[in-house]
Model the fold of this input.
Amino acid sequence: MRALSIGMARLWNLYGGLVAEPKRGAVVLFFLFGAIYACSPNRDLADSRYSLLVSHEIWHRGSISLDAYAPPPWGSADAVPVATDLPYQLFSTGDHVYHYFPIGTPLLIAPAVGMLEWMGLSIVDGEGRYDGGREAAIQHLFAALASAALVALIYLSAISLLDVRRSLLLASAVALATPLWSVAAATLWTHTLSVLLLGIVLLQLVRTGPTDALPSPGVLGTLLAWSYFVRPSAAISSTAILLYLAFRWRWDALKVAAVAAGWLAIFLLWSFSIYGALLPPYYRGGRLLALPIGEALLGNLVSPSRGVLIYVPALIYLAGMLGLYWRSIPHRALATTSLAVCAVHFWAISSLPHWWGGHSWGPRLMTDVTPWWAVLAILGSSAHPFGRSSFRPSRTV
Done:
């Protein structure tokens, strides 16, 4: 037993040495959790099915239409449709068939899909037949890499305020004990790239000191806009971030808002040209109820199949830590913003008629606030009085 303890301690020391420098540590975490996620068996397609087919059409034809893969009357007589009837992921409008779910992910993934096809890995064979199994494998790989990138970003955020040991533990906890593993890393749900884009923004906010200038307003505005294009519920986070920026950097916040508004204007014009409406069907708010029902609130909180406190019990510890050390927390305005986003998002998903999130496992609809949980954990841990690690990070990144 003693030999095992000594071996584990030496392994921990070796691992600590590998991640002691922030950039190197981020790379180690990216490959480690990328491998863990990629080896995980959960890779069933649901809402994301056919999203890479949209990417394929964008790359080859510059179109999001899936007419060629739909059954007649849309597809031609010699085409190979994906099903005899339109599956729930597709819908028809006018003379065309489209993917129902947000367009952001297929657009962002299109270059990677094109690169894989250049390497001989395509979800469409030479005869135009769609391969669902290959799409599932490719989506799982993309999702694993995107989620591992978010873990690396969380580590870089934490290392700006914490020592290496606590940063490592915190990033690992988010990686393994939240829906980041069970949902975002499984397949290309709309959550997957949305939380990554928000994670990049929050990394900048956590690392920006009280007297520092806001970094790259144009980049931040672009990230906020595209997080909405990837998943419309990200509008809650984007709005909260803009309000936080206005509180700290009034004029820079206007630049961020102007860039985001420019992207939104382009999106609205594009939507009108395709669907004859300013917003695609999925982005419209008609699916929300006026008020959440008690069943939804309790279900999303403590249901055995969806309850966030059941599947992420560390949130109870996090809430206690924030309550005990609130007065010592740095970036208190950012912590307040994080709590407000989590509360509003919880209220919003409980207002959905299908508040349980369809065919999925765990609190899938709470995946969107995973980066905010990470921010709260970083800020709360920075106020915690327990001792600092012997591994000292280099703060030069």
User: Anything to note?
Assistant: The chain has 16 helices and two strands. The two ends are 40 Å apart (CA to CA). The chain has two domains: 12-39+143-383, 51-129. The beta strands are 90-93, 96-99.
